[in-house]
Structure of Ribose transport system ATP-binding protein:
Amino acid sequence: MTDATGRPDIGERQPSFREMRASGVSKSYGATVALEHADIALRAGEVHALLGENGAGKSTLVRIFTGAVIPDRGEMQLHGETYAPRSILEARQREVATAFQELSLVPNLTVAQNFLLPSLARPGRPLISARQVIARGADILERHALRRIDPAARVGDLPLAERQRIEIARAIENAGRVLILDEPTASLAETDWLFEQIGKARARGVAILYISHRLAEVREICTSATVLRNGRSIGTVGLGSASDGDIFEMMVGHRVEHARRPGRVAGTASAPRLAAEDLAGHGLHGVSFQLGEGEILGVAALEGQGQRGLFRVLAGLETPTGGGIRVDGKAAAYRTPRAALRCGSGISYLPEERKTEGILAGLSAATNVVLPFLPRVGRAGLIGRRDEERAALPAAQNVALSPRYLGFAIGDLSGGNQQKALMARTLATGARTLLLFDPTRGVDVGTKESIYAAIRAFAEGGGSVLFYSSELPEIVQLADRCLVLYGGQVFGELEGADIAEQKLVAAMIGHGTRPPAGHSSVSSAGPVHAVAESAR
């Protein structure tokens, strides 16, 4: 039954819903055990976290809940009744909906059409006009505080963060009993909107499963958590009593130490390997900076402050409308990523969205790694699978990607192993400058440590790294210096021990003295000093 707007009419049934429960759920693919005896309970009106490393079985469990995968063993119950969906549509009919990390939106359809799928194409349903579709889409956007989004806009033309919000809003619309959020903030720099929507769903009595690698936000929104390791439920803990160390130990089987990168020795700055001079266009308004040899330069910014445009311009994906770029001290005017790689000592880019911009899902992980130098892999013009895996192995070892995964189709790997393969490919190009856009987005603590180690080793070997992260602790841990973008400008610059979350947040919201017009860089004695002082 639906209401006047086309939403499921959940008002009568919702108050009686109590919980969703899974017991002993298991799933294997041949000899590979993806999930082995998983147990979890989700209660109405509560937000429960599911934690674990990539490959621990979280995605498999989500697919089982959603009906995309049929378990081999175990049982599930929804409100005391057997729950065994065999498709996403069947799960939706039982009022269980998921917002996937790898977005399930149809990019060539409008926002409104995506909201109303699959009912638009369902046989026996009366046809509705394009105007009605747009009107219904506008109503949904209004309900979820997304009025700024045009319901007639083509989804593929929207920024990743807006697509993520649409994915989440669509899931909430269909979640009368259970809402599953898989890495919902992976592309969101701010959580206010999401947490507000979660609060509304909780008030309706919806049980919410929240999957994230960001423990700070898990603690903010969730009351309890179930931890998976190697496909098994290790335990369920109350987040008020378990420390981060306790949770990491449950996830990986040992304590995880987060060491900050030692600061560069004063006076060791080298000639710039990459320099931007008053870059404009694509959200930028006169951005200038220099990146030296052996340096890790972080970029911090709230959503939409020009960081995406900056990286795409530097990678050769966009053409600036003003200013210029210098590579190894010489003016550079490359217009493609291939040309950027061939420019000077080389620039290699790790893209924002691995699914659509990074991986070739049907090819093996080894093929994905060696793509930049594929012609050099074979012998006598012939390239075999073992040749690819042999050539990919050194790069894979740099990021702790297990050799056994090199022969797998990369689309079948966990998100963390996909990201390791992309990082390996970025390193394997031989470029001496890396542009890394949110390099650990949506990956677990173990994968993060592997990527951090690879970045540090690259810099210690004389490489230069410019990276943006939506996670401030990552910037604090890795960066020698950090640029803060605000309004498409370099609003602040922090260095060494001054890179602290409180100071970064102050600069990110524009608190302090704005750099004067035409100022190429903000020194710690000038505007940045004012920002840092105001945050203390």
Summary: The longest strand covers residues 32-43. The chain is about 30% helix and 25% strand. Residues 445-460 form the longest helix (16 residues).
